[in-house]
Amino acid sequence: MMRTPSTPSSTPWFQQYARPLMVGVAVLGIVDTAYITYEKLMAQGAGLCQGGCSTVLNSPYAELWGQPLALWGLVAYGTIALLAGVPLLLESTPLASTPEVKKGLTLSQPAAPPSWGDRTWLPLFVATAAMAVFSSYLMYLLAFELHAVCYFCIVSALCSVTLWGLTIAGRTWEDWGQLIFSGVITLMVTLVAALGLYAPATKILNAGPGAIADAAGNVFFYVDAPSGESELALAQHLQATGAKMYGAYWCPHCCEQKQLFGQDAMKQLGYVECAEGGLQSQTEQCRSIIPDVEKQTGEKFGFPTWQINGQFYSGRRSLAELAELSGYQGSQNFQNAFRLCRMP
After folding, report:
1. Angle, helix 319-326 to helix 229-240, in steps of 10 degrees
2. pLDDT on residue 46
3. 217/228 Cα distance (integer angstroms)
4. 71 vs 76: CA distance, rounded Å
């Protein structure tokens, strides 16, 4: 039996292109967060993420559940790309439901089940609303806590808000009451979760720029020495050459090493936190180098341990020693002398 062709869709043009636009914005978010993840895990400040971006990556807010925050953003944008894009691939224009006539009887076709597009609109709304709220909170932290400008972070926030707007305008919502209720619940849950997750990081920042604390925000030491131009230059040289300092938040000698660099320069170091429960802890990486350290140095692995140009050096070192070991050729007018770290 022949069926009459479906009538042209009366869907507004913007709604017809909403999903492709969402896929495009999500892909931009994927590229943005993928690069920030690369900077955090691999580049270690040697890439495009400088200035305010570097401040963010070295802050307590840069990680969530032991992984870079940007990695979770990458997962979120990938999820949105799938929710918005897969229905475009799975669905074709359905035939209109028309009655059939057989032996003088009119037989009505059963109502078609909800399409994949219809099923994914509400999850898209909830997910993009959570991303937009969380990104807005991160922008607040960027402006009022870190006092930094991170263009990669701003791009991600704009992508999140744009996706939420496209979700709202991308279809004709029949039940606005349900939509508003879902949005309010998502707003409340996301804000409470963000405040709870970042409470330790806020506690660390409120303790001062030189505070050394564990992941729970408990402060163990304070670095209160300023950084001179030579200290900053040496720290930047060590970072650029891939030098790493392995230490622990509870280690007084590690704090004394940072005290020689001063508050600003110590943040430029390639520091690896080895203690479990430490901020941005990398215990597995530390365990993996123990055999090489003990073989090269002939000493038991301890803190701090430096890795410079492929060689390991145990113990706290003067800045002049670090300059010589790393081949630093800049100014050595170091102003900080050895002193103990202040405790809370």
Report:
1. 40
2. 61
3. 28
4. 9
Separation CA 289–CA 303 (nearest Å) = 13
The answer to whether the peptide bond before residue 252 is cis (omega within 30 degrees of 0) is no
pTM metric for this prediction: 0.73
Tens digits of residue pLDDT in 91-132: 754 444 444 444 544 555 555 566 777 889 999 999 999 999
Angle subtended at Cα 274 by Cα 270 and Cα 279, rounded to the nearest 5 degrees:
75
Tokens at residue 269, please? 């170091």
Per-residue pLDDT at 8: 45
The pLDDT value recorded for residue 268 is 87
Residues pairing with 314 in the sheet = 305
Phi, psi of 268 (to 5 degrees): -90, -10
Query: How is residue 12 written in tokens?
Result: 């507004």
| 3 state SS for the chain | CCCCCCCCCCCCHHHHHHHHHHHHHHHHHHHHHHHHHHHHHHHCCCCCCCCHHHHHHCCHHHEECCEEHHHHHHHHHHHHHHHHHHHHHHCCCCCCCCCEEECCEEECCCCCCCCHHHHHHHHHHHHHHHHHHHHHHHHHHHHHCCCCCCHHHHHHHHHHHHHHHHHHHCCCCCCHHHHHHHHHHHHHHHHHHHHHHCHHHHHHHHHCCCEEEECCCCEEEECCCCCCHHHHHHHHHHHHCCCEEEECCCCHHHHHHHHHHCHHHHCCCCEEECCCCECCECHHHHHHHHHHHHHHHCCCCCCCEEEECCEEEECCCCHHHHHHHHCCCCCCCCCCCCCCCECC
> 226-279 pLDDT, tens per residue?
999 999 999 999 989 999 999 999 999 999 999 999 999 998 899 999 999 998
Q: What is the dihedral of CA 262, 265, 266, 272, to 10 degrees?
A: -160
Write out residues in the chain with pLDDT < 70, as ranges. Answer: 1-9, 43-46, 92-114
Residues near 271 by Cβ (< 8 Å), separated by ≥ 6? 244, 245, 247
